[in-house]
């Protein structure tokens, strides 16, 4: 009889331990499921943010291409304007004389030297000298 009681007691203890282990494992699984759901929610938010960032990047790329085209157009316009300005300067001999006088002033020529090199009156030489001296 005592052996049967001892066997029953061992079986009951084993069942209680099994139930305890099952309870602990169930709580751990529930905790892991909750963490998994939080990670999935965070992953979804990150994916949504990634889409927003990709759209913004695409907009920046399109804007950059547009700015590049505008810059090319402006460079072309500036080059054409420089050519036209050069042509206008070459058409007016008096303008060429003033440009040469301005270069001489930048090179350090005095008013008297300017008068002699460019064959211009003193008042005109002084005016160019005062306009272009550094």
Rg from Cα: 46 Å
Number of extended strands:
0
Residue runs with pLDDT of under 50 for 5 or more positions: none
Distance between the termini: 123 Å
Please, what is the average pLDDT? Answer: 92
* Class by alpha and beta content: mainly alpha
Report the sheet-strand fraction: under 5%
Profile the largest sheet.
none
CA-based shape: rod-shaped
Q: Give the fraction of residues assigned to helices.
A: over 70%
Total DSSP helices: 4
Return the string of H and E elements: HHHH
Summarize the topology:
Layout: H1 2-91, H2 93-106, H3 111-118, H4 122-132
Helix pairs in contact: 2-3, 2-4, 3-4
What key attributes describe this structure?
134 residues, mainly alpha
Structure description:
With 134 residues, the protein is an all-alpha fold. 92% of the residues lie in helices and 0% in strands. It has 4 helices and no strands. It has helices spanning 2-91, 93-106, 111-118, 122-132. Helix 2 runs antiparallel to helix 3 (111-118) and helix 3 packs across helix 4. The longest helix is centred in the middle third of the chain and has 90 residues, at 2-91. It is rod-shaped and about 145 Å long. 5% of the residues are buried. The mean pLDDT is 92.
């Amino acid at each position: 009889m005592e052996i049967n009681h001892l066997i029953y007691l061992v079986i009951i203890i084993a069942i209680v331990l099994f139930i305890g282990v099952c309870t602990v494992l169930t709580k751990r699984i529930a905790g892991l499921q909750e963490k998994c759901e939080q990670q999935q929610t965070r992953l979804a938010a990150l994916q949504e943010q990634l889409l927003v960032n990709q759209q913004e990047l695409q907009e920046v790329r399109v804007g950059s291409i547009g700015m590049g085209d505008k810059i090319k157009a402006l460079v072309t316009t500036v080059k054409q304007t420089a050519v036209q300005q050069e042509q206008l300067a070459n058409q007016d001999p008096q303008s060429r004389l003033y440009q040469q006088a301005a270069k001489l002033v930048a090179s350090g020529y005095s008013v008297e030297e300017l008068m002699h090199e460019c064959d211009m009156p003193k008042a005109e030489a002084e005016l160019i000298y005062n306009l272009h001296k550094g």
